[in-house]
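Minutes, project huddle
Topic: does the predicted pose make sense with guanosine-5'-monophosphate bound?
PN asked that the exact inputs be recorded in the minutes so nobody has to dig through chat later. Recorded below.
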Amino acid sequence: MSEKTIFRKIIDREIPANIVYEDDRCLAFHDVAPQAPVHLLVIPKREIPSVAALADEDAALIGHLWMVIRNLAQEFNLAGFRVVVNNGADGGQTVDHLHYHLLGGRPLTWPPG
Ligand code: 5GP
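Predicted holo structure (tokens), as shared on screen:
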């Protein structure tokens, strides 16, 4: 069996995280190295390595993640916010478990770099 990712260990409560939302399909928690006053990670519980690895059958799950992101943005009073998904090493992905960054609480500039 392959090594668990850090996010799988968070789902399994093997390492701590500041969890702000959980249901049967996903988990949301504060990023350990926040890049904005609010920096949350929203992840599916299902083992999906990246956007590139998505299956057509994941469509409903992905839709659900967006509803969770919408709700969290409201809950954290984010008037403006950014959702980022890094894919692959060149895309800046460092954890091979699909995750959405929800960033807000300050004006965000573009391009992100
Ligand atoms: P990526 O670079 O793969 O798009 O994003 C991975 C994110 O996970 C980074 O923003 C990083 O700060 C965050 N991260 C890495 N390890 C941990 C951890 O142990 N706990 C939490 N809460 N976040 C982590």
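Observations noted during the meeting:
- The chain has a mean pLDDT of 97.
- The helical segments are 6-11, 59-75.
No decisions taken; revisit at the next huddle.
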